[in-house]
Each structure stands twice: as C-alpha cells, then as structure tokens.
Amino acid sequence: MSERPVVLVVVADREAEAYRGYCLESVAAAYDVVLISPQEPTWERPLLADYEVADPGDPYALTVAGQALAARHRLAGVMTWAEWHLVPVARLARLLGLPTVGPEVMQACRNKATARTLFARHGVPSAASMSARSLLEAALAAETIGYPVVLKPAAHAGSIGVIRVNRAEELPSAVEFASAGARQGVESNKILVEEFLDGPEVSVECVTHLGTTTVVAVTRKTVGMDPYFEELAHTVDAADPLLDTVAPVAAASIRALGLSDGVSHVEMRLVDGRPRLIEVNARIGGDMIGHLVRLATGIDLPKAAADLACGQRPYLTPTRRGAAGIRMLYPATSGTLTSRKINEPFAAHTPWLRQVQWNREIGDALLLPPAGDLFTARVGFYVVTGRDTAEVNERLDTVADEITVTTRAER
C-alpha cells in the first residue's frame, strides 16, 4: 500500500484530457488520487488509485460515491477544478469531515449577484449590476445603469451567455441569448445586467492559505467575436509589471467573499488603468492557465490546490522567470470542419512550440456564437513559451501562419 496521502478529485461531465489532464497529472505526482466521475475513466486510469462513477450534479449520488471511497481509503482531502461542482464538493468535504471552505462561501462565488453585493459592502471596485428575470426588468436595469451594458447568466462559466448590448433595440435578442445560457446552469436561471467595463481584461491567479493571499501570476487575456466574449488567447509573464497594480484588488475580493483557503482565478478589467472586478472563480483557471503559470514561473497550481484541500501549506516559491501563452483555434465561419493541420516540419523543429492540441475531427460540425459556444466552436489550441510577453505574442503569431483551419458552410 502507498504511504502517500489520498485526495478525492471530483470531475465534470465535460472534463477533457486536453484541458485538465495536466491538473490530474500534477496532483497524481504527489498524492494517491481517487476519482468521482460521471463516466468510466479512460485516460485517467493510470493516474488513479480508485474511482466511483456518479453524477456530481446529483447530491445523493455524489454523497454515496464519496462515502464509498472514504470507506475504502483514508482520505486527506477532496477537491475539484470544475466550476459547476464547487458547492456540492464543499458540502461533500464537510460531510466527510475533511478540510473545506464553507459551501455558503462557494455559493457566493458561484452567484455573481451575491458576489457583487459583497464587493460593494467591502469597498472592492466592481461593476454596477442588477438582476433581471424578464425583458422588462432587463430594460429597466439597462436604462438605470446606462448603455452599453453586459448581459450574463448569474451562475455559469466559460463566457457562455455573455453578450454586450450597445442600444435598447438590441436588448430583446440579448436577453434571450443570456437566458439560454442561464438555462444551461444548475443553480440559477437569473440573468444580470451589468456596467460594461471598457478596458483590457486580465485574470489574477491567487493562492490563499489561512486567510493570506499570494498573487502568483497575472494572465493577460484576448477576448473577441464581438459582441460576445469568447476567450481567444492568454499570456502569462513571470515579470508582468501589472502584478503590483492588480494584487491588492484581487486579495481584497477574495477576503470580501470569505475565501480563507484555495486557488482562485480572479477576473477583472483595467478601466483607465485601474482594476475593476468582473468575478472571482474559486478554482484553477480554465484554458490551460495553470499550465501557463507553471511554464512561466514554475509554480504548480494543481498541486497547491491539492495541498490546500488536505489542510497543508502549499509551496509557492517561483523556480522560473519566463513567459508562456496559449491561443485557441476557431474557424472563420460555422460549418463542417474540412481541414485542420499544422506545418509538420515547422512544428518538429520549433522547441518553443510546446503543444498543439486538436479537439475536433474532420467532418465535425462547428457552431460559432450566437448559436454555439466554446464547446461547439473550438477546433483546438497551441501553447508557446518565451522570455517575455512580447516574444510570446510574436511566437503565437508565427505559429498562426503555419496552421490551417477551414470549414464548409452548410446549406
């Protein structure tokens, strides 16, 4: 029997090796991992000590699976990097007597309206925000806040259902778009009408232990497909000068929510150079951001999250001083994927091109917003490293010239 601590990891039904494989690998390098998954493990099996198949969205099924694993193993902690399961996993940890932030704290993180209220109460600079359940309520909120506004589901992730509205005549279709995104969630079907924060978007990757927050990295983000907010690219630079600007606001937002322990992905925009909060996600950022942080700084966020889940102090000393970036691959238009390729000799002889990942196959239907989202539109992504942000961005552009993605429009 292994003498390593055992950590229970709960994953989502949309879990993919491409985006979260590095997380499981990092945790499995230090812990024995037992898994709760909605389906039989495939690629995960070599990394697991045990598993149970159960729907994490079903509280009873999750409890039964967690208790079964606890009966077979001496669990040190339970964790998830799935946004949708933060609250039920906190409840499971409490039930099993394991370290956890309270489910009510996770619920505040998940509910953007609650989070906005807490930000205002604690003086954290955020966006004006009002809840809406109907077109009439949305119209009143938009007039109160002032156009342009942003509509979004009150509890979702991945920029699904998020749209900018510039004029009143755009509002009816935008309400339906945001409402459709909200209906995909499991905790709330409300939508929010918020002030549009006009400025560069960043996320701040944070680790909090016993109430003290360490800002590990800043992720500069590229969003597009206006008026939607699809995330197209991210860069992380260990020496980013924005660190000192965004760190105090990120730490204040985490305190306002009552997050005493955990890894957080804090999204904000810089308006006239000053940080304004978008939201706090109480988990590792998606789109391989944790992997970029490790490539740029050497800090292992999945390992840190596992340490915190087990009540241990994480190791956060940087061991690298570089930069890394990722760019998502989308088609120019919706349709059937007819070609996706990279110049193979270029890829084979380019050491700073760390990864090229294809998520879709020839013949797959790709659907861009507003009809689709990141799950239906992304073809894949690639990751590069460099000395600093400028070099990483130059290399991302260089690789783009070596990649072809084409679709055939459906008639």
Structure description:
The chain is an alpha+beta fold and 411 residues long. The protein contains 13 helices and 19 strands. The longest helix is centred in the middle third of the chain and has 15 residues, at 243-257.
* Order of strands across the main sheet: 13-12-9-10-11-14-18-16
CATH class of the largest domain: Alpha Beta
Q: Indicate the percent of residues in helices.
A: 25-40%
Per the CATH scheme, the topology name of the largest domain is D-amino Acid Aminotransferase, Chain A, domain 1
* Class of secondary structure makeup: alpha+beta
Q: How many helices does DSSP assign? A: 13
Question: What's the SSE blueprint?
Answer:
Layout: E1 6-10, H1 17-28, E2 32-37, E3 48-53, H2 59-72, E4 75-80, H3 86-95, H4 103-110, H5 112-121, E5 129-132, H6 135-145, E6 149-153, E7 163-165, H7 171-183, E8 191-195, E9 201-209, E10 212-224, E11 230-237, H8 243-257, E12 262-271, E13 274-281, H9 289-297, H10 301-309, E14 323-329, E15 335-342, H11 344-348, E16 353-358, E17 365-366, H12 374-377, E18 380-386, H13 389-400, E19 403-408
Parallel strand pairs: 1-2, 1-4, 2-3
Antiparallel strand pairs: 5-8, 6-7, 6-8, 9-10, 9-12, 10-11, 11-14, 12-13, 14-18, 15-17, 15-19, 16-18
Helix pairs in contact: 1-10, 2-3, 3-4
Keywords:
alpha+beta, 411 residues, Dna Ligase, domain 1, D-amino Acid Aminotransferase, Chain A, domain 1, 32% helix, Rossmann fold, globular
